[in-house]
Design brief:
Layout lengths: L1 E2 L10 E15 L2 H13 L4 H24 L4 E12 L3 E13 L3
Parallel strand pairs: 1-3
Antiparallel strand pairs: 2-4, 3-4
Length: about 110
């Protein structure tokens, strides 16, 4: 499945628009990760515990979005974007979304 942040794919035509698709992941860092992250905020620098959590969440959100597009019969997702937010103080939400389409074959 082709996933792109652009509206068009060079050399390909959109034959059909299937509709919007998304993948949502809500994660909470474990107690140990929160303690380590809290200590890192005191000294400054990157909080690797949260960086890895967000990276993994993005990968899972994309996988879920692709699965939804596949069910819809799409072979590509265009205009893919991410959105994220905090839920309370302990959870992070990541959403991958875009438009599921059928592209012609090259």
């Amino acid at each position: 499945m082709l996933v792109t942040t652009t509206e068009n794919v060079p050399g390909r035509r959109v034959l059909e628009v299937k509709g919007q698709v998304f993948g949502v992941v809500v994660r909470s860092r474990g107690l140990g990760g929160n303690i380590m992250a809290g200590l890192r905020t005191v000294f400054g620098g990157e909080i690797v515990e949260y960086t890895s959590m967000v990276e993994e969440s993005r990968r899972h959100a994309i996988d879920r979005m692709v699965a939804n597009a596949t069910v819809m019969g799409a072979n590509a997702i265009v205009m893919m974007r991410f959105d994220g937010s905090e839920i309370g103080q302990m959870m992070s939400e990541v959403v991958a979304y875009g438009t599921a389409v059928v592209l012609d074959t090259p």
